[in-house]
Amino acid sequence: MTKKRINKFIAEAGVCSRRNAEKYVTSGQIEINGKIIKDLSYVVSNQDIVKLNGIILKSESKKYILLNKPKNFITTMNDEKNRKTVMSLVKNSCNERIYPVGRLDKDTTGLLLFTNNGEIAKKLLHPKSNIKKIYHIILNNNLKLNDLNKIKNGIKLNDGIIKVDKVSYVDGLSKNQIGIEIHSGKNRIVRRIFEYLNYKVLKLDRVFFAGLTKNKLKRGTWRPLTQKEIDILHII
Questions:
Q1: Could you report the per-residue pLDDT of 197-232, keeping only the tens digit for each?
Q2: I want to staple 173 with a disulfide (CB 3.0 to 4.6 A). Which of 89, 153, 177, 186 is the partner?
Q3: What is the pLDDT of residue 210?
Q4: Are residue 144 and residue 201 in the same domain, yes or no?
Q5: Is 105 a catalytic residue?
Q6: Which CATH number belongs to the domain containing residue 41 in this structure?
């Protein structure tokens, strides 16, 4: 018999986060087996009938969808300005309500993971997890060797010194095509590194994220993760 804390059960039903689930409980909106439950320590079994404002909740199966994001889509659940969002690209991927793990800005392409597993998403986004990300960058001009070495040694930006894990020219291509491996999750960090050195980023493509690769995944399309890939996410 599977048992879960009440806030975890509600969150896994796809209703909200664990924190918001606690508010539903303490405000008396949760009913279990016909009784209002306000105790956050309550443990739910798979035989219990849980209702939120009269609607039965069911714990969802976990889904993991990988998208190769195209340009000109913003990473948000919905947009007041009616701009194109990444959610429109994965709307037919599953029946469960999934969320993007982190974000890629409008002009950035590449790997974006979606899931309804809040625990995995939180772990992947936490700085202590040191999640590996690799980007392919195309600049407006060839990157000078001196500037390449500056990036290797660390760049001091307004919010601190940024050190990448690896940076190099892409083999066999012109010197304006760069590969960067980085763990930092700071906002627009890759673009800001090159802007600091007076380069314009023409293309920014995330080709690797948390052990996941595009692996023949065409731009604008998605695929479910394999069980092996899911297992890797759990042990990161």
A1: 999 999 999 999 999 999 889 999 999 999 999 989
A2: 177
A3: 96
A4: yes
A5: yes
A6: 3.10.290.10
